[in-house]
Sequence to fold (500 residues):
Amino acid sequence: MSLPFAIHFAYTNLRNEDRTLKITWRTLAGRIDRGQFHDRDEVNRFCKRYLRELKARKLSDEFLTHDNSTITSSNRTYYLSLSECCQRQQLNRTSKLRHIILEEASANKCSAEDLLAILTRQILYLYNRETAKTVSTILMEGYFGNYNVDVLRATSIQQKLQLGKSKYANLRGSLLNHCKFPRWDELRVFQKSLTPQIHLDTVKTGVRFSYQDALESTIDSLEQALDMEFPNTFHISIKEGVDGSGSHAIYQQLNNVETQNLVIYMFCIMSIRNHSGELLYSNPHPNSPFQQRPLFLILGKETIGNLEDVPRIVGERKTLEAGFCYRGKTVTVDSKMSMVDAKMRAQLTGLGGAYCMMCTVSKDAASGRIEEMGFNDFMVINRTSEDTHRIWDSLNQTSADGNKLIKKRRHDYSERQGVTREPLVDENTLYCLSPLHCIMRSFEWVLNLLYHLRSNILVWSRGKTVLREAKPKLEHTRSECIRYVKQQTGILMDSPDGTG
Fold:
């Protein structure tokens, strides 16, 4: 029995567990007809005799000649492979396995289809990693439910697998017996219909999109994916952010920019509610990269020059918050800029010299303040966007080249409070901590403490300048800890995965 046929049959039974499975003479003849017979009449005669013999629980020698091997399962010997049996026999033989899969899927809080996809990936992984990834992704998309794969699901598979034209054509041809994928040109036409109008940036190398066009395109995609139409009045909750990315490949093209970095401004729809507050849609994977919608892509690092377009995007979003019209429907928006790290917060708020992004306490004042003051008095979150703008307006000066700046002086932190340039946005949500980065840094602190205690190095540093000859000892202890944890749990800690 081939693996694709077994998976296909398992999916069919799982999806039609409560239905009566029937098989026609033509279907049975087509499965047995593997080049063993000369014409269709001989196949039909074989099928009739096969069912009669099977019902009488007697298999003649003639039938044994069509299968050279025996299949043993649960102390039973089958003289016909599973692919040559009728659907009723296939259902009976795999009933125990089907119940085990359903129980394991329930215990692992996943669907039976996802469990089969994971098992298939593990089986194929030893032979071909790319094939394993492709098969498991397609199985998780559940394409076996319908022979004709719609263009929306085909686009999702193509994007997740990062398939080009040739690889997509090979995939489409290989799966033609199981399902029919749309042609590549149909896929491209559909993808272009979902993409908002692209505006080329004439100053910097990159592209940008209109916030309203991108949001309307996303709403249209959601209506198609959910197979529903939103009411005449609904409200959208959005999170947005801007970040930089590096280590990108540089292709040998004419006039290409020599940089491995890019900056992206993105947003993600969190939920959609009607005018009475009833939930219509909740994003199940809001942190997935496939859920983020770009608003601009600029080649280069996270510099002020490459972030000049951020105020325009924020202004467009504030206009949308008052409400806009989408196909005759009234849509309101609320948004929170939360997907930003500490470096980007400093760039957007102009606090390049601040010791803390939430309070105005300097580094020197904070060194002994915990002992002098109570905890409640020490942790006072008092930074606001309005105060930052006020400090900039009162202290900025125009330099000889015409640029505005704040001249730094010794011991001026109480007056300047870390403001170094004009704030790009006036979002108070930026004057806080990034929870994800706090969790990562907390684990990093615990691991650093573990390495130092294990190696008996009581100096809080991992640098070569401070540790000197103790540096190799600390690195050796770190390697031992990583190896021990992996042996005991299978988890590779303190190391980035394949995605960075």
The chain has 22 helices and twelve strands. Residues 435-454 form the longest helix (20 residues).
